[in-house]
Write a structure and sequence with these properties.
Number of strands: 0
Radius of gyration: 16 Å
Distance between the termini: 51 Å
Low-confidence stretches: none
Number of helices: 3
Mean pLDDT: 76
Structural class: mainly alpha
Number of domains: 1
Order of helices and strands: HHH
Strand content: under 5%
Shape: elongated
Largest sheet: none
């Protein structure tokens, strides 16, 4: 049962990464990062970018210091 769930998550991540295959491939080029780890790293990066992309979400003063 657990193995089936793991395989289902792996298949879901692989399908979700299809539009961003170039980024997924770059992450997999890092030693020690496999297909699933690359997918999880990509999800975290995209989530952080979505949350911090608005200047209103930046810390005070961040606009003034490059």
């Amino acid at each position: 049962m657990l193995r089936h769930l793991s395989d289902s998550i792996d298949a879901y991540l692989t399908a979700a990464m299809h539009p961003c295959a170039w980024a997924h491939g770059l992450l997999q080029a890092t030693p020690g990062v496999d297909k699933v780890a690359a997918g999880l790293i990509h999800i975290v990066i995209v989530e952080d970018m979505a949350r911090l992309a608005r200047p209103s979400a930046w810390p005070r003063g961040a606009l003034y210091f490059p």
